[in-house]
Amino acid sequence: ITIVGAPAASDVITLVQPGWGAWANGGSYNMGNGSNFTFQASTLSGAPVTLSETGPCVVSGLNLQVNSGSGVCNMKASSAGGNGYAPVTYGYTINLVPGTQVATLSAPPSGRYKVGRVLVLESPGQQDTNAGQNITWKLKKAGKKNCQLLYPNNGSVTLRIKSKGTCTVLGTAPGVAGQWLKFSTARKYTGR
User: Fold this and answer.
1) Do 122 and 128 meet the contact criterion of CB atoms below 8 Å apart?
2) Rg (CA), the chain
3) pLDDT (tens digit, 9 = 90+) per residue, 129-164?
4) DSSP string, the chain
5) In 3D, which of 149, 135, 139 has the Cα closest to residue 184?
6) Is residue 62 within 8 Å of residue 39, measured between CB atoms?
7) pLDDT over 90 (residue 2)
8) What's the pLDDT tens digit per position in 5-57?
9) pTM, 2 dp
């Protein structure tokens, strides 16, 4: 009588993107330029998960960083197995898309402000967006009698509330073809 052990079952990898959920083996995911997060990973065997990739993404430990708005990254998650489980490798396709530009603005939130007050929309030396694009500020025509944009020689952008009434200030920055989407913001200020 020959007794042969049953083949070990393949390990199972669970890879979770925080705030989104679990990634499926063989799945395809869209990631915007500038995405950067650390996966939560586990296996049935208890073995650690190792990530690797080919393409313009960067993997370090369980961290994924997307540095392009076009192309494809092929990522693999591997487990060495153990505790009765065989090694396994899962694959994922990451489609790179233009990222969302964001800006750290000095501009106060929309609201009511005393006539004569000067609001700082952009501080001196402020890097405008995460894509390095400059923000252009303008007033909607209807509010020009109530507010005035000022450009002091220190490099800041300010808004003076001239009179009672409402004005809307728009801030825009151009997109970067294939890398970053256009940025836009609006603030509504009312003089009191």
Assistant:
1) yes
2) 26
3) 888 888 999 999 887 899 999 998 888 899 999 999
4) ----PPPPEEP-EEEEETTTEEEPTT-EEEEETT-EEE-EEEESS-PPEEEEEESSEEEETTEEEE--SSSEEEEEEEE--BTTEE-EEEEEEEEEEPBPP-----PPPSEEE-TT-EEEEE-TT----TT-PPPEEEE-GGGTTTEEEE--TTS-EEEEE-SSEEEEEEEEE--BTTTBPPEEEEEEEEE-
5) 135
6) yes
7) no
8) 555 799 999 999 999 999 999 999 999 999 999 999 999 999 999 999 999 99
9) 0.75
Q: Which residues pair with 22 in a beta bridge?
A: 16
Q: What's the rounded Cα separation, in Å, for the pair 142 and 167?
A: 7
Specify burial of residue 150 (Cβ count, 10 A radius: 0-12, 13-18, 19+). middle
User: In the prediction, which pLDDT does 85 show?
Assistant: 95
Contacts of 1 (CB under 8 A, 6+ apart): none
The span from the CA of 73 to the CA of 23, in Å, is 15
